[in-house]
Amino acid sequence: MKDAIGYLRVSTGEQGRSGLGLAAQRHEIEAFGAREGFRVKSWHQDVQTGSGADALLLRPGLAAALKQAKSGRCPLIVSRLDRLSRNVHFITGLMEHRVHFMVAALGKDCDEFTLHIYASLAEQERKMISERTKAGLASAKRRGRRLGVAARSKAWQRRVRALGSAAIVKMAMERAEAHRPHIEWALRQPGVNGRPISYHSAANRLNERNIDSPTARSWQGEQLQRMAARLGLNHPLGRLARGVARARVQALWNKHPDFTAKQIKANLGLEHPLGYNRAFRLLKECRRDAANRSPEHKRVNWYLDCRTAARIKISAISRRHPEFTAKQIIRRLRSEPFVREPWVQQVMRECRLASTGRTAAQRRVGRRLQSPWR
User: CB atoms < 10 A from the CB of 137, how many?
Assistant: First the structure.
């Protein structure tokens, strides 16, 4: 008896778990082999749809069966042609490459013309099945029936989401562990001016050595940073992200609104100091945000500098208490820098001149602020 390779396929996971479709196909192939003088020496199977021309990519069982049939120079036997594929292009490609396969339902001596006809019928049947399935699902959906995941219970959905998240995390961790030596080497390289290397520069070092990333593309700084975090490599940032730098400058400015850009740069306490230009731009943004929230600042249009916060506080106190003198406002401000009585009087005068909509009583009270000895 001649050797042969048996191939089985079902379309859905339920068919694969039941085994009924696979058992029936196996019985047909064994009966065909006994009748025609073939002995099936190995079996391969897939649980996958028969549509598409890329069947070898989607069905590893079929790829292994064809490879073994070619190497052993023996035929590949399937129960029916649609078990091999429901795509005419794929079946004609096998015939053009002289891959010897036989269909138990069509017999040993089936010619290529008959195979083409049955392949076309199988592809048309697949299209009709797809149309009937879509029409049935659409009709069920119109009747209010839930389909797919929505038809399952909430507990089942949460469990499946948790399993999916765990699988994604596990795969990401495995990829990171596979590249651990390269990542550790890149992060050990020297940076600018003796400082630790940035993630962007480390990614460039890996690209220069032609080391492929997990996505088979060039390395990126953010990608390297995520993988280092998964591996527990606490490498300091070479450059603060804009959001992080803005938050730290904002927090420091809230405590010390009189700080200049040099003082912000010196007091951040970062391992990688913030550059002067970035510190100045972020500090100016903090001052501008505070100025936009102050109606007096908008009317007077003061310059944004280290006295911006003090001007806003003076204008707010003067608006709430127009009868206050400069000395009383200074006592309210307590230990604010740059607060001298002449300067406070000037700020109060500018607020009064720029104010609109004040009553006559408020203007009479405000005239007391013009006295230079107050």
Answer: 13
Closest CA to 85 of 120, 113, 50: 50
* Euclidean distance between CA atoms 114 and 102, whole angstroms: 12
The predicted pLDDT at position 373 comes to 39
Closest CA to 210 of 201, 202, 219: 219
**For 17-35, what is the mean pLDDT?**
83
- Cα within 13 Å of Cα(36), Cβ side: 22
Average pLDDT along the chain: 83
Q: Is the pLDDT at 167 greater than 60, yes or no?
A: yes
**Look-up: residue for tokens 């707010």?**
316
State how far the alpha carbon of 130 is from the alpha carbons of 133, 233, 344, in Å. Answer: 5, 51, 81
For residue 137, is pLDDT > 90?
A: no
Annotated active-site residue 42? The verdict is: no
On whether the CB atoms of residues 78 and 104 are closer than 8 A, the answer is yes
Q: What tens digit of pLDDT does each residue of 277-298 get? A: 888 899 999 999 988 988 888 8
Q: Where are the domains of the chain?
A: 2-124, 157-239, 240-293, 304-374
Biggest CA–CA distance in the chain, Å, is 122
Nearest 5°: phi and psi at 230? -65, -35
Tokens of 84: 């091999």
3.30.1360.120, 3.40.50.1390, 3.40.640.10, 3.40.50.300: CATH of 2-124: 3.40.50.1390
Q: Of the residues 11, 201, 213, 318, which is catalytic?
A: 11
